[in-house]
Amino acid sequence: QHTCQGAVRSPQVVKFLDHVLRHVAGEVVVILDRAMIHRSKAVQAFVQLHEHLSLVYLPPYAPELNPIELIWADLKRNIVGNFCALTTEMLTKRLKVGWQRVRRKSLPLAFIRGTPFTASLVTSAQISSWQSWKGVKPEC
């Protein structure tokens, strides 16, 4: 687990993707929103170098389609709701406990199923050889 102080930028996104590739075998599909850091030249160049990595971009202005928004809502409601951290270290520790809970295998799938659009992308990726998004720059 890794936390960042300050804004997350393209180098951290590349570092995250590299971490995922080192720990997940086989074809990897990462679903992202259209934040500029996810569409940067550095990220696109990294994807080009890794054949088994594909990025799927969600439609613009659609947080309700993004499973991470459900995860953040769950963390806010069940982990940090009514919790007053006196230090950033206390907050970081509490969030790490929450992320350990999210890492259970059934919970991420529940969040994906909670966003039907995203669930359809994942299902399509698993069932057939759907059009690879590798190297496709999202529309701005």
UniProtKB/TrEMBL annotation:
Domain Tc1-like transposase DDE stretches: 3-80
A Pfam family this chain is assigned to: DDE_3
Signal sequence segment: none
Designated name of the protein: Tc1-like transposase DDE domain-containing protein
GO function terms (MF aspect): nucleic acid binding
InterPro entries for this protein: RNaseH_sf, Tc1-like_DDE_dom
Alphabetized Gene3D superfamilies for the sequence: Ribonuclease H-like superfamily/Ribonuclease H
